[in-house]
From TrEMBL:
Domain ATP-grasp: 9-230
Species: Bryocella elongata
Protein name: Succinate--CoA ligase [ADP-forming] subunit beta
Any one GO BP annotation for this protein: tricarboxylic acid cycle
Highest classification ranks of the organism: Bacteria, Pseudomonadati, Acidobacteriota, Terriglobia, Terriglobales
Catalytic activity, as annotated: GTP + succinate + CoA = succinyl-CoA + GDP + phosphate; succinate + ATP + CoA = succinyl-CoA + ADP + phosphate
UniProt function note: Succinyl-CoA synthetase functions in the citric acid cycle (TCA), coupling the hydrolysis of succinyl-CoA to the synthesis of either ATP or GTP and thus represents the only step of substrate-level phosphorylation in the TCA. The beta subunit provides nucleotide specificity of the enzyme and binds the substrate succinate, while the binding sites for coenzyme A and phosphate are found in the alpha subunit.
Cofactor binding notes: Binds 1 Mg(2+) ion per subunit.
Keyword tags: ATP-binding, Ligase, Magnesium, Metal-binding, Nucleotide-binding, Tricarboxylic acid cycle
């Protein structure tokens, strides 16, 4: 689960990590009030920042500095409601529905700090680089040696010597090392307490008066741990998510929208991946990843159909089921009922295997629905690709 920068900064603040003060605004009036407040507190510069679940906002025109209230208002008017395009949003961009109005900082250096769960080592890796403020993926690609890493043993956590080592590699002044270590410990504790999978401070800045600040912050939480974080769950902003994925999550369907034309309905994540692969192999493109789960019932199948059908790019539906826990006859009954109820007119291609497969095939044959059955996965994929091409 992703959250906004202003929410991430609120979390950092609770862990004693210094961040600029600011207010979130959803209207021009709120933005104006927040900017006036910051200027009246003696800030020479106020920053207007678009809040969307994507990075690269600065380059896309979603981060602007203002020295007067008039400038701040003009930036707020320009950014709020704009369709912000960054390298992470795709060409359609993302509509800006919230702003962060923040006190400006006098930047001396832009550095980078990041924590990520490294699956290969089974540890949290703490990363630091002197190349902050820019695309860290580019730094990782071109000059990987300039990203310093410390692996944290889960039993004992981040150690002071590791934080000091990273602080020295960032080239911080002697007087800043202690603050940097405290800063990193705050981040590490926040990361662990919130069950995060990613936390990035880019840029992590030093100011002209020698202070350290998190100028930007991105946090992703582990979805599988959200059941034990009711408070964090409330930070979800579904306006930032794909509407079909939001719908699917209501029915406990694992659905990811993709941009091909063949909708897939599959039970089991491994089979779903294999199905997408074989569609590609047959010359087509999957419209989605969908795992209806091992114990899917008729209602879930119906909901799954509904979601697949609301994607206008879909030209054919490929149902690939292995009847293990979910018996094939039960699935076939559900597919027939759902297809009738929703009046599905798109071609349906089935590949069925497993418990009660003969009964299942009979139910499909008796239904009178225009369904093609492939004997193997490859044959079914070929049928689906042909059907999608029309
Ligand atoms: P991102 O582009 O989505 O990663 O947004 P950031 O919050 O990282 O902001 C992008 C850039 O805007 C930063 O790298 C800074 O160079 C600049 N910026 C943001 N806030 C301030 C500020 O308070 N003062 C100054 N001088 N620059 C800022
Ligand atoms: Mn950034």
């Amino acid at each position: 689960m992703k959250i906004h920068e202003y929410q991430a900064k609120e979390i950092l603040r609770r862990y004693g990590v210094p961040v600029p003060s600011g207010e979130m605004a959803t209207t021009i009036e709120e933005a104006d009030k927040a900017a006036k407040q910051l200027f009246s507190e003696g800030n020479a510069v106020v920053v207007v920042k678009a809040q969307i679940h994507a990075g690269g906002r600065g380059k896309g025109g979603g981060v602007k500095l203002a020295k007067t209230i008039e400038d701040a208002d003009a930036h707020s008017k320009a950014i709020l409601g704009m369709q912000l395009v960054t390298h992470q949003t795709g060409p359609a961009g993302q509509k800006v529905q919230r702003l962060l109005i923040e006190q400006g900082s006098a930047i001396e250096r832009e550095l980078y700090l990041g924590l990520v769960l490294d699956r290969a080592s089974g540890k949290v890796v703490f990363m630091a680089s002197q190349h902050g403020g820019m695309d860290i993926e580019e730094v990782a690609h071109n000059t990987p040696d300039e990203i310093f890493k410390e692996y944290c043993d889960p039993g004992i956590g981040l150690q002071a010597y590791q934080a000091r080592k990273l602080a020295f590699k960032l080239g911080l002044a002697k007087e800043q090392i202690g603050d940097a270590v405290k800063f990193m410990f705050g981040l590490y504790k926040a990361f662990i307490d919130t069950d995060s999978t990613l936390m990035e401070i880019n840029p992590f800045i030093t100011t002209k008066d020698g202070k350290l600040l998190a100028l930007d912050c991105k946090i992703n939480f582990d979805d599988n741990a959200m059941f034990r974080h009711k408070d964090l769950k409330e930070l979800r902003d579904i306006a930032e998510e794909d509407p079909l994925e939001v719908e699917a999550s209501k029915y406990a369907l694992n659905y990811i929208k993709l941009d091909g034309s063949i909708a897939c309905m599959v039970n089991g994540a491994g089979l779903a991946m294999a199905t997408m692969d074989i569609i590609e192999y047959a010359g087509g493109k999957a419209a989605n990843f969908l795992d209806v789960g091992g114990g899917a019932n008729q209602e879930q199948i119906e909901n799954a159909f509904g979601i697949l059908l609301s994607d206008p790019n879909v030209k054919a539906i490929f149902i690939n089921i292995f009847g293990g826990i979910l018996r094939v006859d039960v699935l076939a009954t559900a597919v027939v009922a759902a297809a009738r109820k929703l009046n599905v007119t798109l071609p349906i291609i089935l590949r069925l295997e497993g418990t009660n497969v003969e009964e299942g095939r009979q139910i499909i044959a008796d239904s009178g629905l225009k369904v093609q059955i492939g004997a193997t996965m490859k044959e079914a994929a070929d049928l689906a690709v042909a059907a999608a091409k029309g």
